[in-house]
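Retro notes
What went well: the complex prediction finally ran end to end.
Inputs used:
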Amino acid sequence: MKNFKSFLFTVAFSAAALSNSFAADINLLNVSYDPTRELYKEYNDAFSKYWKAKTGDSVTVNQSHGGGGKQTRAVLEGLEADVVTLAVGYDVDQLYQQRKLIPENWQTLLPNNSSPYTSTIVFLVRKGNPLGIKDWNDLVKPNVSIVTPNPKTSGGARWNYLAAWAYALKHNNNDEAAAKVFLSQLFKNAAVLDTGARGSTTTFVEREIGDVLITWENEAFLVQRQFGADKYEIVAPSLSILTEPPVAVVEDVARKHGTTDVATEYLKHLYSKEGQEIIAKNFYRPTDTEIAAKYAKQFPKIELVTIDKNFGGWNVTQKKHFSDDGIFDQILAGNK
Amino acid sequence: MNLIKPTLLSSAIAIALLNAPTVAAQSHHSSSPSIDSAKTQILEQRIKELENRLERLDALTQQQPQTSQSPTSPQADVKKLTNEVHLLERKLEVQEEVADANAKKAPIIEAGEKGFKMTSADKKNQVRLRGAVQVDNHTFTGESHLSADGKPLTIDSFDLKQGRVWLEGYVFNDVAFKIMPDFAASGNVLPDAYIDYTYHPSASLLVGKFKPALSLERLQGDSDGTFVERAFPTYLASNRDVGVQLHGGFNFTGHGAEKVAGPIDTKNQLTYQVGVFNGAGDDGSPNNNAPDTNDNKEFVGRIFAQPFQHSGYSWIEGLGLGVAGSYAQPTTQTLKNQATPIGRNTYLSYASLNTGFTAPTANGDTYRIYPQAYWYAGGFGLMGEYAVSSQNLLSTQTVGKIKTNRTINQTNSAWQVLGSYVLTGEDNSFGAIRPIQAFNPLEGKWGALQLAGRYSQLDVDSDTFLFVDPNKSANQARAWTVGANWYLNANALIRADYEQVSFDGGASKGGNRPTEQVFATRFQLAF
């Protein structure tokens, strides 16, 4: 009997050792936009534990962050991202349009058009809101110093711009000429155009430049959490835009790395209860109705326009507003 | 009042500066790195000015009692200036970030001794503009050579040997190319035009028009040779041909093999070339766009080793040995006359024939064998090769009214030994010699000097004279050549050669063709 127990122990130990010896060490690269650092830091840890428990494999997820436009170009120019988690669908779609790194139907491969979370655009002002900023029309007043990133390099900045555009259209009977004048005044008040949203946060918070930061809702909450709610206030404008940051497996790269399965699961797990909880805790709006209801109080109620319904989708919007000589370029040229 | 003035001034500077959103927004896609750098310098300078003013204001406010906090008070001015400095500093940071991003995307443009080069920021694409000009002088001494109709052949002349401008480089890292026209050439105005897919050091695919891998001296760069012209063995190999060649290199000493584009690889320890060509015949070179006249192709192969490369024994590292060969079955391929190396006078003419014979052509089995070697150690250089070219020649003999096809097997052979020494301390090389000091007499710098000598010989198969008139063509040519090369710098050189070629046969009544004596100089610029 004693010998049999020893035998069983040896077999079990050997099996465990064998299984460990076959466990793989996997590396993933998630190329993301600027303000998602904290979200993915927490999520990556959770996913690594989940994947280890599920498969026995160790997965390390490396992060790369920057302005969404810049990050997209980096992937197009050879940065070997297994997954991208970018700010706007147009940028992700370029991976198909320009290099066929992802399938054409990438947006249908995951729920909610491959957007596991949403957010919106709000204002962050200094404590006491010295200039009494309440809505977009307050940003175009003289002597208001605005901090926002450059829409040419930042996905978040494009959302900022479009939210302002939607507001201007609503209050000018959909007159695009008037909206252009409104945006022109707004960008005249822009003190610095950083290359990414996190850069703008640095400008506003650490360098103490500007009266108002136009930023992602999650970024505004994060500033409050990190620097104190007694120093900054979040102002929810009367109208903003539903931002839908999409995610995708860069199949061409993942296939080369042999990481397709883990990369796919990495993104799918964002939709799980655990993933959605982490998303909500990092001030992104979860898409899971149960988790969304749980955290509903945390997010202000704002009238939200969408890129598809109000702007005709990203392809149309990008060409009209942000391509070379598009409306944004015309605004900047007029402000010279 | 004294405080308000500098404040207003600095505010004006700051306001003038702060079109910054426009600057930052535009620069990311339109500014060049140099413009970004200039903007950055201006911003840095102005920040320093503002900081200096701020320091002076700080000093003044500390000296004066605080009386009020009105908007025009010194404290308010200082705060305003502080904000402006912070803003400027932040703009500078953004500007630098944009400039860095632009610099990473900007192509790298270089101009140097190897031409003008433009490389993409990711270094996967490159184009080089290169060129070469060779201007020669030939002065014949000794006995004059006359053509069959009594016209002098040995005419002293200035010649434009080469006038080349070419593009070479690579795209997508692996696809190399070269397009080299020669504006001084009379017929073959595009000597090289090829694409080389260098996917792996051991296997690259070269297609187009280039030098077939046969004669060692022929494969040497046209600007890199030791004498004004190459020796006899070279002219038994095709000059250029159109075809496809698989080639590659290996290294067995722990040094990784290098990818080398083009017809010759001197960087790897063991190299090979295997190709299929239209077949151009001895010293042949197809004119541009000239189609092949038959389906038979020529197969060319070469293997070359530098067994002691990277061995650490410098005296023997530059030893290279190899052998090349070709095989074809041409159909009535036109033959090219053979000429003396430097004088370029025909001594074997397939147009001066015995009575009743038509001009012979190559028809049937043809092969060449080229054992070859070089050895470069310090200033010393030695190169030698042996060539055998065997071909079946076909001619039609007419006797009375009867025409008969006559064939012979012609096996010509040639060899050469070349020795050279660089007197001025530079390393001798199969490639170009790079002077330690460029020529600058006012500074006592004289460039590099190389002395060289060679012996070369070609034997014509005696069966050839069934067709060819032995009174007009020699059956053996022997050439002694001595020369000096003065490398003014990495791009310019002056050559001076003397060559004496003696012959067996080639004159009437069984006599020998007169010895050819020629003094030649060349001024060459190559980059």
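What we learned: Helices of chain B lie at 4-17, 20-30, 33-63, 74-105, 216-219, 314-317.
What to try next: split runs per interface for comparison.
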